[in-house]
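Exercise 7. Given the components listed, write out the predicted structure of the assembled complex. Treat all entries as one system.
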Amino acid sequence: MALIELKNVSRTFGKGDERVVAVDNVSFAIDEGEVLCLVGESGCGKSTTGKIVAGLLEPTRGHVLFDGQDISKMDKESFRRYRHSVQIIHQDPYASLNPTQTVRQMITRPLLRHHKARSNEEAEKRAIELLEIVDLTPAQDFMNKYPHQLSGGQRQRVSVARALTVEPRFIVADEAVSMVDVSIRVSLLNMLSRLQDEFNVTFLFITHDLALAKYFAWEGRISVMYLGRIVEDGPTRRVVMDPRHPYTQALLAAVPEADPELARRKRRIELRSADIPSLLDLPSGCTFHPRCPYFVAGVCDGEVPPLVAIPEGGRVACPVRKDISIQLIEETPAAPAA
Amino acid sequence: MSNESQQVVLKHEAGSGTPLTLRNVSVAYKTRKGDVQAVRDVSLDLRAGESIALIGESGSGKTTLGLSIVRLLVKSAQVTNGEIIYRRNGKEIDVLGLNKKELREFRWKECSMVFQSALNAFNPVIRIWDQMKDTAQSHGWKDKKAIRQRSLELLKFVQLDAERVIDAYPHELSGGMRQRVLIALSLLLDPQVLILDEPTTALDILTQRTIIDLLRKLKEEQHFTMIFISHDLAIAAELADRIATMYAGRVVEVGSADDIFYRPRHPYTLGLIRAVPKVVGDFQELFSIPGSPPDLIDMPSGCKFHPRCPYATDKCRQEEPDLVPVGPEHMAACWHWREVEKELQSKPLHSIS
Ligand SMILES: Nc1ncnc2c1ncn2[C@@H]1O[C@H](COP(=O)(O)OP(=O)(O)OP(=O)(O)O)[C@@H](O)[C@H]1O
Ligand SMILES: Nc1ncnc2c1ncn2[C@@H]1O[C@H](COP(=O)(O)OP(=O)(O)OP(=O)(O)O)[C@@H](O)[C@H]1O
Ligand code: SF4
Ligand SMILES: [Mg+2]
Ligand SMILES: [Mg+2]
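Answer.
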């Protein structure tokens, strides 16, 4: 059974002329211990989806199921348990840590409050364990530090340790490593992966960086969002190596690669328009149709194309291209002699 | 998005020789806690028509170096040593010796800079046209029609709907459009050298791609001499002929883009490359660099990278290495670059797996 499931979830903001559908009819399920990566450009609804999953925001329509139970129908106690089981880690560790608390206070207080430790000594011991889990060692050295005495990467580790105090089964990581430098990003990602391996923590990993998504969710799945809707999902390998939706293809082709030869050989996909539609005035049918190079009048601008399963794995919301693979890298020009 | 109908006549006179030379440039910020040595002893030659990327982590001194070239450092900063020499048509200019009036000319007509996070720097109540007109007029252009002509031409060149954008207010434009306007504005007085600080950071992927392609066009068709500043290695891979890696205020390696990506000799450059994932292709293992960048007020002894370096020895802890040739047109500042070379012979950095 899925640990968390979204069934036809929509969320609107504003009223009248200002009304936007930030999340539109989104459905997915994540099994215990699985990783799902949500990718897409700014404003496509990733964080809104993440907040709905974490119970911080109510959907306007649809249902959120945790352990098979509809969270809107839970009694107080079950809802409290669910809220603790799902923790969210934000992009900006500066904003999410209280500047007046030491690391010790940030970690031992929730341990005591949530009865995960019965005494100060027990809380202290557990805090040290948690700091070790997030690779802040020697842990004793970090206990008395304030946020401003830590680097960005270290602060993010503290946020993770704090989230772990309530022994979550599910972590929503919303751009959790986007602000740290490349040289330390990998070790943060590896630490999060370890939580998944060792403690069977389930992840919704939100990022605008497709290369990061690929790395973190290689064994998991990716969902691609565009203007509030999921346009493609599937096992990471399939989505990255054999993308089908023209939007996914355009994204993968557009990402600059940290490799000059690859950059030269990567295929370009020309869009019909560079303009991103406003959520206030969405195109009919497939909302990508005004930009899509494969647009077919009458097919793409009529009904909203549903997500349809494909045999290679996952779902694609494009009736025109769902069965057609493309090459993202041009064939090697004659290989140079070794 | 091809703009066949918008053929543009923009013609940039590519210079020759070496438009810009930095010699032993050092810059420090005065702070209450002490001097921040943001740039230390940087020497670089920028050749006409080439593009060079400065890469390195946050705080490595990239922006400070860029700002010192256009003399826009804040008051608390000081160039404590070195020379910056600019050349055009056989004339040499000592940039650090320019007076206020000369500087204003220099910044628009010789060497212009598009600033990091300038996207929000537009004055919201001034239309794009007024912005361009004021800039041109303050440099002695009188003919308004000619200014408008040139402005439209540039806006078309950066692939904007020029007639519409020229009369727009900044808030009516998207981030990618504003970035394009900034690039157009920086070209207004046809400078020889263009410095772009994080030109695509904070833009969405598809928008970022249009800016990269535009910058490539400036480079390949107009032969601008350019400096890209970016913490994103991918921008360097896409756009640079040569790359300089900065660490703790110093250039620790400089070479062709291929040398830096496939034959790095400084352990820090190698570390960066091994830390960055690629999107296309099979899974690839990544490695992080242990530790974090140094405190620029109280720096480690010897090689500033030694506390994080897997190759470090006592020599590294004691003496700071100079940039030395490690190949044709390729320099690195590491005592143990030959070991890096050896390691890469057994484990090459493949381009595509
Ligand atoms: N509280 C709110 N009130 C009104 N509109 C909102 C609210 N939260 C989000 N939105 C709108 O909903 C849309 C989706 O926002 P969301 O933050 O989910 O996007 P995102 O994919 O996380 O973007 P980013 O990559 O920039 O973080 C945006 O248009 C946003 O302006
Ligand atoms: N106005 C200032 N006063 C004091 N220190 C400063 C000032 N501006 C920058 N610094 C310091 O100088 C060093 C170099 O900063 P700089 O902005 O040049 O780095 P950068 O490589 O451009 O980094 P980023 O990638 O974050 O833009 C940093 O340690 C920074 O904290
Ligand atoms: S449904 Fe049509 S418009 Fe939308 S992406 Fe597919 S082909 Fe393009
Ligand atoms: Mg978000
Ligand atoms: Mg900078």
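Discussion: The first strand of chain A starts at residue 2 and ends at 13. Confidence is low (pLDDT under 50) at residues 334-338 of chain A.
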